[in-house]
Amino acid sequence: MIEKFKIFAEFVKDLSSETKDLETYLYVKEYLKNYNLNIEISSKPLKNRFIEVNTKLTYLDNSQTNKKSFFEVLYATIIQIDEKIKERKEIEKIVLCDVQNKIYNNLEKVFINLLKDSGYPGVKIEKKINFEELYRKRSN
Q1: Which residues of 58-76 are buried (b: 16+ CB within 10 A; e: fewer)?
Q2: Fewer beta carbons under 10 A from the terminal one: N or C of the chain?
Q3: CA dist., res. 59 & res. 55, Å (int)
Q4: CB of 117 closer than 8 Å to CB of 46
């Protein structure tokens, strides 16, 4: 079995934590459990079968309150696709599933540290993201 891709670099491209004041901080500290984790994956072809894969995690409060904090990590992964891989669908699966499965533990650590360093220690992401299932749903 051939190795379909190689990771050449992975790094935090952008990191954001916004809490406007103490009142908001105290409110969010109590209601952070109501926030939802969102994930977006995009890619940009580079030269020589290299692809930049950007994975963005955002933690959002979807309620109508004005007391909200904003947390976001944009994580870049530079991969090179094996030259034997030609089909667009296979490359899409590599970007949306295989790369995500390899990098997610590192990305999650960065995200948890962002929350901790923003004054919200002890946050855990209970539900692990099943990238295979997300890909299958997207394909149907």
Answers
A1: bbebeeeeebbbbbbbbbb
A2: N
A3: 13
A4: no
Domain ranges of the chain: 5-139
Judge contact between 109 and 123, C-beta under 8 A.
Answer: no
**What digits encode the pLDDT tens for the residues 75-106?**
999 999 999 998 999 999 999 999 999 999 99
The encoded tokens of residue 101 equal 């499965």
Taking the CA atoms of the chain, what radius of gyration do you get in angstroms? Answer: 17
Residue 73, helix vs strand vs coil: strand
Side by side, the strands of the sheet bearing 50-60 are 5-18, 70-81, 50-60, 36-45
SS3 assignment, position 82? coil
User: 5-139 adopts what CATH topology?
Assistant: Bacterial Protein-export protein SecB (3.10.420)
**Rounded Cα–Cα distance for residues 77 and 54 (Å):** 6
pTM of the model: 0.90
- The vertex-80 CA angle with 78 and 82, nearest 5°, equals 160
113, 115, 108, 43: which is closest to 80 by C-alpha?
43
